[in-house]
Specification:
The chain is α+β, with helices and mostly antiparallel strands and about 140 residues long. Strands 1-2-3 form a 3-stranded antiparallel β-sheet, sandwiched between helices.
């Protein structure tokens, strides 16, 4: 790491002086180190930006989800390495997960509601049938789909 801005410090908890000249793997969770190396390799080999979601390991040893974009960095026409930019997306991921759970609950209740409608229609038919057997007109209209 040769440059570390204020936003990177805010996300990771490291100061610029604490992280400069360290390897970028220090900022990645153990599970995402291979993906971090893959991103770096693809960025310097492909000449166009790459982006992935990774878990960054903060100074306090907690992690957060970041979107890391990397692109090759040239100086004087020579490849020097990769520029990497990280953006904290943990809140977005938390909201996406909460939304996924809400959709799951909605779908479950929607299925239950449809089941109740079907049972209500069956009961109305049954009551109407019993009324007809007693010589009385059916009392309920049954709307079936």
């Amino acid at each position: 790491i040769v440059f570390f801005n204020h936003e990177a410090s805010r996300i990771t908890g490291y100061t610029r002086d604490e992280i400069l000249r360290h390897h970028f793997r220090k900022l990645l969770s153990l599970d995402d180190i291979a993906e971090g190396f893959r991103l770096f390799y693809q960025a310097v080999r492909s000449n166009y930006p790459k982006s992935v979601l990774l878990r960054t390991l903060k100074k306090d040893r907690t992690s957060t989800i970041v979107e890391v974009s990397a692109a090759p960095f040239y100086l004087g026409g020579k490849l020097q390495g990769a520029l990497a930019f990280m953006r904290d997306v943990s809140e977005r991921k938390r909201l996406e997960e909460a939304n996924r759970k809400r959709v799951e609950i909605f779908m479950r209740f929607s299925g239950e509601l449809e089941n109740w409608r079907s049972q209500a229609a069956s009961l109305k038919k049954e009551v109407n049938g019993l009324l007809l057997q007693l010589g009385k007109p059916g009392k309920y209209s049954v709307n079936e789909k």
